[in-house]
Amino acid sequence: MQARELRQKYLEFFESKGALRVPSDSLVPSNDPTLLFTVAGMVPMKPYYWGQAKPPGPSVTSAQKCLRTVDIDDIGDISHCTFFEMLGNFSFGDYFKKEAIAWAWEFLIDVLKLDVNNLRVTVFLDDDVAHDLWVKAGMPAERITRLGEDKNYWPANAITEKIQGPCGPCSEIYFDLQPDQPFDADWDGDGSRWLEIWNLVFTQYSGEGEGDAFTLATLPIGPSIDTGMGLERTAAAINRLSGPFETDVLRPIIAQLEELSGIKYTATPDAPVDIAFRRAADHARSTAFLLADGVTPDRTGRGYVLRRLMRRAIVAGIRRLGFEFEPFLDRVIPTVVEVMKDQYPELAERESYLLQQVRQEETLFRRTLANGLARLEDELAKGELSGRRAFYLYSTYGLPFEITRELAEERGIRVDREGYEQAAEEDTLLNRPRDVNVWADANESVNDLLKSLPATQFVGYGQLQSEAKVIGLIVDGAPVASVQAGQTADILLDQSPFYAESGGQMGDTGLLLTAEAAAAVTDTRKQSGLWFHRATVERGTLAVGEVLTAQVDTDRRRDIMRNHTATHLLHKSLRDRLGDHVQQRGSLVAPDRLRFDFSHQGALSPADIEAVEKEVNDAILRELPVAIQELPIDEAKKLGAMMLFGEKYGDVVRVVSVGENYSREFCGGTHVGNASQIGPFRLVSEGSAAAGVRRVEALTGRAAEGFDAANNERIKAIASLLGVPPAQTPETVEKLQSEIKALRQQIAQLQRTQAGNQAQTLAADARPFGGVPVVLALPKDTPDGPALSALADDILDRLKSGVVVLATAADGKALFVAKASKDAVARGARAGDIVKAAAQVAGGGGGGRPDFAQAGGKDTSRLGEALAAAEATLTRQLA
Asked: Percent of the chain having pLDDT more than 70?
């Protein structure tokens, strides 16, 4: 029974016990802003244990996709993986220890048919109940080990370290990897013989308070269960495989790499080639899942991790698997999809996008890698390489530390790993995504308040004004009973017509009013079901418990609604024009504009932009009705409603349809009732947002009218300057451009003639250096580097053989160019060293090839000295 069958058996078993099977959450956590990735099966379940959200059922089971990169440097050994699946069964105040232990035993012994002599369990030191339940189930008492809080409590040391939140003792199940050895009854939980395959956490407490006031309170939802079984390592263990890479979810990927490379995988733990196989296979799998969940390669945050994984895989292929000259990673992705699509159909649905992104990233990285290797050569020529410079090579040129270290060691140069890691840590802290938790800096009293409050009821789809009760006030991270005029506070209401920022749509603004007080709401955000109205009290006093009138800024909301519905029309138009590969990668719906990021290679042409804008305006003019429904998710999918990458959807979803069959998307935002209410649509900008992601901005309604009016005024102003009617401005400008072009051609011809004369004069003045003609000069009328280089070319062409060294001042900087013929290089001339010597005198630097080099400096007053230094260097070379 390998991994895929194990997964199915597990889920079916707990369904038979009454658990609801739930789909895997995204690798991008939807409810925990402190995590970059979903690192465990219980992460999506945290709000249910905290009582912040209602679970979909009293007990659930899932196969959760997870990603951990804390052991990234170990990836390539026989046991570690970045991406893995965690099988779990969870109870939210439903069943507890008795059922959890009995069912775990039943699954292991009756379903998996494991031999009890290959198993042992651990329990918390004083957990007699768990101990006795295991004995009752059939586990021999000598195979039950009691361990301390550091090993058999979750979180580890939760009591000693006074960790707040849900916690409890746990019981871990271990599998024997060395069954030929005598049973070690005095085992202490360490060592490599016993592999943990399943952890049963008895979540029955909640850590409350700090310091001496810390206590273990009863979990509000009642004693609960949280379990986790690592799919790959459990499958490997029970099948007596050497590790996860021999299972049916990873071995086919290695087999594909074998076929592509023509190299045999031998499963040797420490063989460099086999390490490369495992690293490439693991990272290819992680890449596919991260891309499918909406993460794109980037320089920061999650995108940084994805790019690092991809580049490590590519480097493994280049260095060890024979892929020096051709991309390969995209040819592995289809195997990942084929192996995993039965459980994760989103991979197959997005396969063409995955291939496109991987192919592009590898192509770009291979170019970057070539530049990085060239810069590494310059660094190694200095005879040393600090850890910080090694990280600079990685962060700037994408050169992985492994390559830097290997090439440095080949020359006897040691690279400081600690310095590299310190620089990497500083970079990680600098680029860490901003915590979006609206009360991240709040004290514990605020957290207690928030846990005690009921969720805010949002009534803003159907009304823009409602009565509401103040249920909480927070000022400067602390709860207060009231707020006075002049104070700014986060105001929590029992219900609200204010839309809270979500899905790219900005939060509403407006007023909160009582007979004696008024507060201006400047932003609305939400967290765990609570609405936070950031407001400044303008008069009077607001207190907890008061009933007030909440009024949304109607004109601003309507502008936002126009832009949100227009965003859906824009998405549809882009797909119609460019292809179905177009997928939303981010958006901003503001009152004054909309911004839309989407997957696509290359810039949109003027014709594309014109066609997209026209299609959106045509949809508006057709007065397409906008319908909104709440439907079961399966029914919504059958209707063809579009799901967005990385979004988490419940069993019932909100579907926004424009026209009968024009546009249909899952969306929780606010919209107009008919497309005609959007008004004019103007696509005003297009550009790159990230690798493989384009960004467009557009205006609607009043903003579009203002844009048109401003353009009309500009046209009138241009016409006035040209002295023609506005209708004649295009042909008048075209005529002026033709005249300017002709004048520029005349000037260029005069410059070429002048440069040719100067080149002839300088070539005639060449001096012999050891038999090699040499020109060292400060020419006139060379305004920039290209002009200086062109002049050097002209001089050398006239000489046929020799060396040309030129210097000039341009834009306040010193510029140097050196060119040498092939025979001069053969005689010892090195253009790079020549300009480097000159530039150092002028306070700069540079270099290049032996036959051509450029350099710059800051001090233009020392051009003569710099040229003398160049001459001295050339003299030594030719001597």
From this structure: 96
Q: Rounded to whole angstroms, how far apart are CA atoms 854 and 789?
A: 8
At residue 870 the predicted structure's pLDDT band, cuts being 50, 70 and 90, is very high
Interatomic CA distance for residues 534 and 493, integer angstroms: 12
Q: Average pLDDT for residues 274-302, to the nearest whole number?
A: 91
Neighbouring residues of 124: CB distance < 8 A, sequence distance ≥ 6: 130, 146, 147, 148, 149, 152, 153, 169, 170, 171
pLDDT bin (cut points 50, 70, 90) of residue 434 is very low
Average pLDDT, integer, range 177-187: 93
Would you state the pLDDT for residue 324?
85
Residues with Cβ within 8 Å of residue 782, at least 6 apart in sequence: 788, 791, 806, 808, 810, 815
User: 3-state DSSP call for residue 627?
Assistant: strand
Spell out where 781-869 has E strands.
Answer: 803-810, 813-820, 845-848, 852-857
Q: Read off the pTM.
A: 0.59
Sign of CA dihedral 250, 255, 260, 265: positive
- Distance, in Å, from the CA atom of 219 to the CA atom of 231, rounded to the nearest integer, reads 29
How far lies 477's CA from each of 34, 447, 528, 610, 699, in Å?
Answer: 18, 10, 17, 49, 37
Q: Who's near 244: CB < 8 A, 6+ residues apart?
A: 79, 81, 84, 232, 233, 235, 236, 250
The 3 state secondary structure assigned to 61-92 is EEEEEEECCCCHHHECECCCCCEEEEEEEEEC
Query: How many Å apart are CA 800 and CA 766, to the nearest integer?
Result: 12
Residues 555, 557, 563, 566: is their CA dihedral positive or negative?
negative
- Burial of 429 per CB tally in 10 Å (0-12, 13-18, 19+): exposed
Strand blocks (E) in 561-707: 584-589, 594-599, 626-632, 652-658, 663-666, 681-690, 693-700
Q: How far apart are CA 148 and CA 153, in angstroms?
A: 8
3-state secondary structure of 299: coil
Q: Which of 463, 462, 479 is nearest to 471 (CA)?
A: 479
CB atoms within 10 A of CB 92: 23
Position with higher pLDDT, 309 vs 648: 309
Identify which of 614, 690, 700, 628 has the alpha carbon closest to the alpha carbon of residue 665.
Answer: 628
